[in-house]
Specification:
single chain; 596 residues; alpha/beta; 6-stranded mixed β-sheet; 21 helices
C-alpha cells in the first residue's frame, strides 16, 4: 500500500533571473529570490549591492529588462505599485509617510476608494482596532500621529499595508529609528505575523537582529547573488559580514584606554526652538574633553538635530557655548570652523556635499581660500587635484577619478569624501551626526575606526547616533536626550543597553552633572578683551564677562543601581518566549541585574 505524500506548499514569491539596468549601471545581474509563505526572509548586502532595486522591482516601482516574477505560483507583471498592492504586496519604508495632524484611522484610509462620499470614523476606528488586535499591534485608532512615539508610528505604517490586504510585506531598515525596547517589540510582532501566515522580507544592516528574526537569508554583492535562501542556523555575525562584503570584517575596534584632557566644548543652559517654533532644547548643559567621545543617545526627534545645529552655528539659541575660550553661540559656521570645529552632517547630499560638483571641488570647500590651494585671488587647480588624489587614496574613496561628481558615489564613498574633507583639517572638535546610518558593515567599520583614530590623536568627538550598539562601542560617556532635555549621562562600561533604552523613552533618569568639567570663567573676559583690541564694542562679550560662572565643585560620581538584587534573581520563573527572543537579539547578558 502506498502512503499519500504531502505536496510542498508553493512559495509566496519567486523572482528568477531578474536583470535591471540603469544608464552605466547594472543594478541586478540575473538575481533570483524566493520567499516562502509564513517566513521572514532577510535580504542583506553592501550599499549599492542592489537590494532596494530588487525590492522596487517586486513592489512595481521599477520594471526589469528581463526575468520573471511569480506570486503564489501565478506569473505577474507589475506596471505600478498599485498592481503590486492588488497582488498582496506592500512595502514599509524607513521614513514614514504619515500626516501628523490626522488620526491613525484617517492615515490608514488615505488613498482608498472606500469610503467614497461620507466618512463614519467610529465604524472604521473599530475596524482598525480589530485589525490591530489580530496582529498584536497595540494602537489607539483615534490618536493623532503627532501624539504617537516613533515605534507607534511604525505600527501605523504596518497597519496601512495590512488594511489593504497585503500578505507579503517588505520592511526597509525597520529598526533604524527605534529605541531598543521598541525594536524588540517589533521583532515580536513580526514573528507573530509570520506565525499567522504573512511572508516578510526584512532588509537591515543590524546583523544581530537579522540572526534573531529571520528564518533564511539572501545576500547580494555588486548586483549578484552570493547566497540564496540560506538558513540562519550556524551562521555567525562574522560569517554574515564576510559574505556581504567579500572580506573578513573585524568587529573588535581598536579603542585604546586613555585619559581625557582639557575641556574643548562646554554648553551652559542652552535652549532653542525647532522649525515649528516649539521648544526643541531645554537648558542643555554638557562638557566634552580632548581625546574623548561623548555619545548622544535618543529616539529621533528629541532635540539631537537642534543640538548639533546650535553647536555648528546653523541655529540660534539662548545660553552659552564655549569653545577654545570663546562663546560660539549664535556665531556663523565659519567662526566655529576657525576655532577648529569639523562637522559630519546627517544629510550627506543636502548639507554635507555639493552633489553636482566634482570630488576635488568638494574636498577644497573649507580651505580654498588658503595656500596651497589659493594664491591671493587665484585658485591653483593642480594643487587642488593633487590634494584630492591624496585624500582619495588615503580614505579609500572608490571613484574613476577626482573629477567624478559627488552624486555618482555610493553612500559609503560619499561619507568617506565628507570624512576626508573634515578630518584632514586637523580639527579640535568633530561633531558627527549619524555618521554610519545606512552604510554596510564594511563601510561602518572604516568610519568607526577613523573616529577612534581621531580620538587617539586628542580630538574631542560629539557622536550623535540612533544605533545604540555603536554608541556603546565608541563612546567614553553617553548623554541621553528625551524631549529636548539631557535626562542622564552614563558610563557605557557599567550601564546596560536596556537602561539607556528606558532613559530614551523618558521612563528613567540618571545624574546629568558635567563630571569634573568647569565653565571657563575667563572666556567672557577673553571675548571682551578681543573686542577692546580691535576698538570695537561687543555687548555680548561684555555681558559674558560680567556673568562669568565660577568653577563649581566636581560632583560625586553616581552609582547606577541594578534593576534587581542579585539574591532575588535566583528565584525568577522560567524564561518566557518573549525573553528568549530578547536574549537572542541582545546577547546572553541582555538584562544584567534581573529580568523586568
Amino acid at each position: 500500500m502506498t502512503l499519500p505524500t504531502s505536496i510542498p506548499e508553493s512559495p509566496a514569491v519567486e523572482m528568477q533571473d531578474i536583470v535591471l539596468r540603469f544608464p552605466g549601471v547594472l543594478a541586478n545581474d540575473h538575481v533570483s529570490f524566493t520567499l516562502n509563505k509564513g517566513e521572514i526572509h532577510a535580504l542583506l548586502g553592501e550599499n549599492g549591492a542592489g537590494k532596494s532595486s530588487l525590492m522596487n522591482v517586486l513592489t512595481g516601482l521599477y520594471k526589469p529588462q528581463s526575468g520573471t516574477i511569480r506570486v503564489n505560483s501565478k506569473k505577474v507583471v507589475f506596471n505600478s505599485p498599485k498592481d503590486a498592492i492588488l497582488s498582496g504586496i506592500g512595502m514599509i519604508h524607513q521614513h514614514f509617510m504619515l500626516v501628523p495632524n490626522q488620526s491613525v484611522t484617517e492615515n490608514i484610509l488615505i488613498g482608498l476608494d472606500e469610503p467614497r462620499f461620507t466618512l463614519n470614523l467610529k465604524k472604521y476606528d473599530e475596524k482598525v482596532r480589530e485589525l490591530a488586535a489580530q496582529f498584536g499591534l497595540n494602537i489607539d485608532p483615534t490618536a493623532k500621529i503627532w501624539q504617537l512615539s516613533v515605534g507607534e508610528q511604525q505600527r501605523v505604517e504596518i497597519l496601512k499595508i495590512l488594511y489593504r490586504g497585503a500578505n507579503i510585506l517588505v520592511l526597509d531598515e525597520p529598526t533604524a529609528v527605534l529605541a531598543p525596547q521598541e525594536a524588540d517589540e517589533l521583532i515580536l510582532t513580526l514573528r507573530g505575523m509570520a506565525a499567522q501566515g504573512k511572508s516578510i522580507v526584512f532588509i537591515s544592516h543590524k546583523l544581530n537582529e537579522v540572526r534573531a528574526v529571520a528564518d533564511r537569508l539572501t545576500i547580494l554583492r555588486k548586483g549578484k547573488t552570493t547566497a540564496e535562501g540560506v538558513p540562519l542556523e550556524g551562521l555567525t555575525k562574522e560569517k554574515l559580514a564576510s559574505l556581504m562584503v567579500g572580506r573578513e570584517v573585524l568587529f573588535n575596534l581598536k579603542k585604546c584606554d586613555q585619559e581625557a584632557g582639557d575641556t574643548v566644548l562646554m554648553l551652559e543652559d542652552v535652549s532653542a526652538m525647532n522649525n515649528k517654533d516649539l521648544p526643541a532644547l531645554k537648558n542643555v548643559s554638557l562638557c566634552l574633553k580632548e581625546g574623548e567621545i561623548l555619545g548622544i543617545a535618543g529616539v529621533a526627534g528629541n532635540g539631537q538635530s537642534e543640538l548639533v545645529e546650535v553647536i555648528t552655528g546653523m541655529r540660534t539659541c539662548t545660553g552659552r557655548i564655549w569653545m577654545g575660550g570663546k562663546n560660539i553661540a549664535n556665531k556663523t559656521p565659519q567662526f566655529s570652523i576657525e576655532q577648529g570645529l569639523a562637522h559630519i552632517p546627517e544629510d550627506r547630499v543636502g548639507v554635507g556635499t555639493a552633489p553636482n560638483l566634482s570630488i576635488t571641488k568638494n574636498v577644497i570647500m573649507k580651505n580654498f581660500e588658503h595656500e596651497p590651494i589659493s594664491h591671493r585671488w587665484r585658485l591653483d587647480y593642480t594643487a587642488a587635484n593633487n590634494q584630492a588624489k591624496k585624500l582619495r587614496e588615503q580614505y579609500d574613496i572608490q571613484s574613476p577619478s577626482v573629477e567624478t561628481q559627488a552624486r555618482k558615489l555610493s553612500g559609503g564613498n560619499l561619507q568617506k569624501l565628507i570624512l576626508a574633507r573634515e578630518l584632514s583639517s586637523q580639527p579640535r572638535l568633530v561633531v558627527a551626526m549619524q555618521p554610519t546610518r545606512g552604510l554596510d558593515v564594511g563601510a561602518i567599520e572604516g568610519v568607526q575606526q577613523l573616529l577612534l583614530n581621531q580620538r587617539e590623536q586628542g580630538c574631542a568627538i560629539l557622536l550623535v547616533s540612533e544605533d545604540l550598539d555603536e554608541l556603546m562601542d565608541l563612546s567614553d560617556r553617553i548623554a541621553v536626550m528625551y524631549e529636548g532635555e539631557i535626562v542622564g549621562i552614563v558610563n557605557p562600561k557599567v550601564t546596560d543597553i536596556n537602561t539607556i533604552g528606558l532613559m530614551m523613552t523618558g521612563m528613567a533618569r540618571r545624574g546629568t552633572a558635567c563630571d569634573d568639567g568647569v565653565f571657563p570663567p575667563e572666556a567672557g573676559q577673553a571675548d571682551a578683551d578681543a573686542g577692546a583690541q580691535t576698538g570695537e564694542t561687543d555687548e555680548a562679550a561684555q555681558a559674558d564677562a560680567e556673568t562669568a560662572t565660577p568653577e563649581p565643585p566636581a560632583p560625586p560620581e553616581e552609582e547606577i543601581e541594578p534593576a534587581m538584587p542579585a539574591e532575588e534573581a535566583e528565584y525568577l520563573p522560567p524564561e518566557t518566549e518573549k525573553e528568549r527572543i530578547l536574549r537572542k537579539v541582545r546577547g546572553p547578558d541582555w538584562n544584567k541585574g534581573g529580568r523586568p
